[in-house]
C-alpha cells in the first residue's frame, strides 16, 4: 500500500510546475476580487481533486496497468490507495489554501463565515470524489472527461436551481423548518451523507476493478 501511495505522489510531481501556476492564478484572483476567498479555496480543492484522480491515466499509459497488476498488491489495495491519495492531497490543498484566505479576512465574523464555507466545500469535494473515482476507473480517459464535464454542469445546474427554489420558497413552512436546525446539526448531516457516499463509492470501485481485465 505504501508503495502505491509513493507512486502516486511521484506521478503528481510531474505536474508540480503546472500546479504552482494554477495556485498563482488563484492567489491573484483572491487578492484582486473583494469576495474571492470562497472561490479561491473551492478552485484549489477541486483542481487538486481532479489532478490526483488523474493519476489513473498515468497508470494506464502505454498499458502500464498490465505491469502494475503483476506486482504484490491486491486490486482492493489499489482502489484504497487512490482514495487515500485523492483525499490526502485535497485535504492538504484545502488547509494550505485556507492560510491566504484567513489572512485576507479582516474581521472575526468574516473569518468564521470563511471557515464554515471551507468546511462545506470540503464535504462537497468528498461527495464529488465518491462520484468521480468510480467513473474514472470504469471508463477510458476520453469518456471520463466527457462525463466529468457533464457532472460539473449538472452540479452547477442543481446549485442554480437550489438557489432559485430557496428564493421562491422564502417564507414557506419547509424553509422555516430548515431554519430550526442548528448549524452543527446540518454539518453532521452533511458529513454523514459524505461518509455514506464514500463507503458506497469504495465498494463500487472495488467491484469495477475486480471485473476489469488487463
TrEMBL record:
Keyword Translocase set for record: no
InterPro entries registered for this protein in UniProt: ABC2_memb-like
Domain of life: Bacteria
Keyword set, alphabetical order: Membrane, Transmembrane, Transmembrane helix
Keyword Hydrolase applies: no
TM ranges: 12-32, 38-58, 79-102, 114-133, 145-162, 182-202
Name of the protein described by the UniProt record: ABC-2 transporter permease
Organism the protein comes from: Blautia intestinihominis
